[in-house]
Amino acid sequence: MTVVTDTPLARRIAGKPRVQVTRHLLPSVEARMSELFDVVLNTQDRPLSRDELVAAMNDCDVLVPTVTDRIDTEMIAAASDRLGLIANFGAGIEHIDLAAARARKLIVTNTPGVFTDDTADLAMMLILSVPRRLGEGSRLVRDGKWTGWAPTAMLGHCIGGKRLGIIGMGRIGQAVAHRARAFGMEVVYHNRHRLPPSIETMFGARYEPDLELLIAESDIISLHCPAGAGTHHLINAARLKEMKSTAYLINTARGDLIDEEALIAALASGEIAGAGLDVFANEPKVDPRLIALPNVITLPHLGSATIEGRAHAGEKVIANIRFWVDGHRPPDQVLEGWA
After folding, report:
1. Chain centre distance of CA 202
2. Please, what is the Cα angle at 168 between 163 and 169, to 5 degrees?
3. What is the C-alpha to C-alpha distance for residues 97 and 77, in angstroms, rounded to an integer?
4. Mean pLDDT to the nearest integer, 22-46
5. Which residue is catalytic, options 102, 179, 239, 254?
6. ∠2-73-231 over CA atoms, to 5°?
7. Annotated catalytic residue: which of 301, 312, 322, 329?
């Protein structure tokens, strides 16, 4: 491998770049990577330890991590000067210290947009399932405790006419709004910035600048904001108390957004009616108290788990690497924190 040019934006490489992939990807993606790059794959799909990640960062031109790999300041500082690109598999980049990457003139890319519809579909599934008590009903049948149909048995709530409060109106939030409108829901959203009127009209959505008011007046709240210092425990004990006792909380974004201890207390006491959770604070560990609650549906981080989405994400990773290798700015370079 010969480095021909070196800038903060790109690096032209003669020959195949050394690429370290931290998790097992789709066979089609790995096969294409093997054709194009000198690639090291993780065929066992075992999450790498911190030391193993640092070792990988010292033996490659490109690191391809996922959300399960936390890349912090010390790890970036310990990386070899050979490392020039962190091509993240996934849209979220909160697990990568962008400021440290900038200081080392490392390029960081992600795969935005590829999981929008997949995650929105899953959020809508939970919005439909939790009020209709699908989790409870499924367990009832599986455990052999269903005694038959009755006029007052397993009554839930319909969602038509209910108010859906969306917190975070980016790509996924908008896709959820689009789906919710088809089910006759009233959509209200809170966002750092108000959307243009044309987009609000398209989704039939109303902007609510007061987050506390949105929380207090929504029948279902769905979280679609990124994790970070400003959103850590966005839903805490105080805000759970503001929710209606008949309201439901849906989270397909990041577990860090919710104070799980406070959520468990609110669900167990009937302070809120139920929750649908695809993400958790300490993944893959899930608090057994959450699993035991009958009014909670817990899923194993399935938001992006479609063959089509994962294939598309792999294609984006490959494209970003190839642009960088050819000396061009990668199309999905994360610019936050860059001058």
Report:
1. 24
2. 80
3. 11
4. 97
5. 254
6. 125
7. 301
In this prediction, residue 212 has a pLDDT band, given cuts at 50, 70 and 90, of: very high
End-to-end CA distance of the chain: 29
Q: Determine phi and psi for 92, rounding to 5 degrees.
A: -70, 135
Angle at 115 between CA 161 and CA 281, to 5 degrees: 80
Which range among 25-39, 131-145, 324-338 shows the weakest confidence by mean pLDDT?
A: 324-338
Q: What is the pLDDT of residue 338?
A: 38
Which helix (H) or strand (E) element contains residue 309? Answer: helix 307-325
Buried b (16+ CB within 10 A) or exposed e, 62-96: bbbbbbebebeeebbeebeeebbbbbbbbbbbebb
Residue 283 is a catalytic residue: yes
Q: Is 322 a catalytic residue?
A: no
The two three-digit tokens of residue 176, written as one number: 């959820």
pLDDT at 227 over 90: no
CA dist 27 and 22 (Å) reads 14
| Contact assessment for residue 168 and residue 223, using Cβ atoms and an 8 Å cutoff | yes
Please report, as a single letter, which amino acid is at residue 321. Answer: I
The two tokens of residue 201 are 């009209």
Q: What are the beta bridge partners of residue 166?
A: 189, 222
- pTM attached to this predicted model: 0.90
* Residue linked to tokens 């243009």: 196
Per-residue model confidence (pLDDT) at position 339? 30
Question: What distance in Å separates the CA atoms of residue 12 and residue 114, rounded to the nearest whole number?
Answer: 27
Of the residues 74, 283, 308, 328, only one is catalytic, namely 283
Number of neighbouring beta carbons within 10 Å of residue 32: 17
**Amino acid identity of 7?**
T
User: Is 88 within 8 Å of 70 (Cβ atoms)?
Assistant: no
Dihedral angle over CA of 97, 99, 100, 101, nearest 10: 80
301: annotated active-site residue: yes
